[in-house]
Amino acid sequence: MKKMKLExxxxxxxxxxxxxxxxGVRTTLFLKGCSLRCRWCHNPESISPQPRLAYYKHKxxxxxxxxxxxxxxxxxxxxxxxxxxxxxxxxxxxxxEACLGNALRLYGRKTTVDDALEVAIEDRDFYxxxxxxxxxxxxxxxxxxxxxxxxxxxxxxxxxxxLDTCACVQWTAFEKILPFTDILLVDFKHADTAEHRKLTxxxxxxxxxxxxxxxxxxxxxxxxxxxxxxxxxSEANFLATGKLLSELRLEKVKVLPYHAMSRSKYEALDxxxxxxxxxxxxxxxxxxxxxxxRDCGINAVSGNE
Length: 305
What we know:
Strand order of the largest sheet: 7-1-2-8-9-10-11-12-13
Strand content: 15-25%
Structural class: alpha/beta
Number of strands: 13
Number of helices: 11
Order of helices and strands: EEEHEEHEEHHEHEHEHHEHEHHE
Radius of gyration: 21 Å
Largest sheet: 9 strands, mixed
């Protein structure tokens, strides 16, 4: 009998002992590639589906180790200063391994389902009765076949599964993973489709349609709303969001505060910094949004709690 070929995926990183990516203590696998281009993206390294090298200049000690090992001559040392030519980089990761100052980091590596499963099983003793494994991104469902196979194997191991998604994917992707996913963490950006397109590059019609289908299919759903001052924090938006979400079967809605702690990643990746230059919302602002949602009959909570 011919052995089935295992799916490969592109993993960004693995985060252990997470308590914010679903119930309990979890191991979160971040996958590369995203269908949205949110201005406030906290993980710009996840947007491209391809591996990409980040260069954190402030960490560079100009040791020259990357120069000697790079097969594409992307690194040079001139007058004792390191220079990185991104256009030459092949994202092989050799320089990351050689860098003495940890100034170079390759975001994105190919992995098999079985290798990813092994990582998850290693942490099983920490999951307890509530924890487990979460697939996140980026948008993990851009690698739906990899997700399906991994989630199925996790369920066979008796491990709780969660998937964090922006839901801007075709419904067929959800159909592949629903039988093996215990809870879906769905990000919701803005209730108005024109504003949603302005802020993320895509309208919200597909997202709303998927949310309705997930609700109709009895999926366990936790919606997450990141509150970004000046983008989606208006009372009108939260009233519209509350009206829309109140029609769905949801476990809860969590309102999370925006922060700009990922700003250094944009420079390291030579990407335009699109993160809003605003202060994080305080607890009063978060609770005001939570109360608006509660008035709509939604089980809403603050992400600060």
